[in-house]
Amino acid sequence: MKTMMLAFAATILLSFGAYVVLSNMGFSSADVQSAPSVRLD
Q1: pLDDT in tens, 6-34
Q2: Within 13 Å, how many C-alpha atoms sit on residue 37's CB side?
Q3: Cα separation of 34 and 7, whole Å?
Q4: Do 40 and 30 form a contact (C-beta atoms < 8 A)?
Q5: pTM for the predicted model, two decimal places
Q6: Are 1 and 7 in contact (CB under 8 A)?
Q7: What contacts 28, CB < 8 A, 6 or more positions away?
Q8: How many CB atoms within 10 Å of residue 37?
């Protein structure tokens, strides 16, 4: 049970870290998927 909780915690930390890094690099899905003619609010 302890190993499973550790794996859950590692997954949460890694996904949050990836979100922060990719957002700071400009690779968010809004930046990547938008075209010049699309208005994002």
Answers
A1: 999 999 999 999 989 888 887 767 767 76
A2: 0
A3: 34
A4: yes
A5: 0.59
A6: no
A7: 22
A8: 5
